[in-house]
């Protein structure tokens, strides 16, 4: 545990400590992309980051602790939501961001490694769930605004609408194969917007 009782690596000091953290997390990304979670080693990460091995072990403790901090850092650095003034436009912006992230050679490889790790490691799975929870919470307000404008019925589950946008993209990315192109992103956003307007994500008894 960290000195403040939180997860290892969750303290946010500045100066040299912040620089060491940034270097270590970058090195952890490189190692994950190259070797996957099974090949991740704190000593190797320390070497790549040109950081003291003792520092890395003391601050993060375990590989799972390091990955949890990496996911938290990724959530903090993620692009904020875009609001265009329409549900269709907002969901299209979300779909484009997801597509661009997954299609990026480095980011796509990193997410594949993290998702694979989460399938077999409980703490990493919990960290990945927190990451996506943060991103969904960032974008859910665009659906809530759409409800206020009358573009979707009252009671619409904003989080489910956002999940519906990215689900086809992740399926193509992880399972389906084929290009992660703009057409797919546009279609995913449009399908989610049409379903939201039709009340698919609202309680059945919503007027």
TrEMBL record:
<dbReference type="GO" id="GO:0000976">
    <property type="term" value="F:transcription cis-regulatory region binding"/>
</dbReference>
<dbReference type="InterPro" id="IPR050109">
    <property type="entry name" value="HTH-type_TetR-like_transc_reg"/>
</dbReference>
<dbReference type="InterPro" id="IPR011075">
    <property type="entry name" value="TetR_C"/>
</dbReference>
<dbReference type="Pfam" id="PF00440">
    <property type="entry name" value="TetR_N"/>
</dbReference>
<keyword id="KW-0804">Transcription</keyword>
<feature type="DNA-binding region" description="H-T-H motif">
    <location>
        <begin position="41"/>
        <end position="60"/>
    </location>
</feature>
<protein>
    <submittedName>
        <fullName>TetR family transcriptional regulator</fullName>
    </submittedName>
</protein>
<dbReference type="Pfam" id="PF16859">
    <property type="entry name" value="TetR_C_11"/>
</dbReference>
<keyword id="KW-0805">Transcription regulation</keyword>
<keyword id="KW-0238">DNA-binding</keyword>
<dbReference type="InterPro" id="IPR036271">
    <property type="entry name" value="Tet_transcr_reg_TetR-rel_C_sf"/>
</dbReference>
<dbReference type="InterPro" id="IPR009057">
    <property type="entry name" value="Homeodomain-like_sf"/>
</dbReference>
<feature type="domain" description="HTH tetR-type">
    <location>
        <begin position="18"/>
        <end position="78"/>
    </location>
</feature>
<dbReference type="InterPro" id="IPR001647">
    <property type="entry name" value="HTH_TetR"/>
</dbReference>
<dbReference type="GO" id="GO:0003700">
    <property type="term" value="F:DNA-binding transcription factor activity"/>
</dbReference>
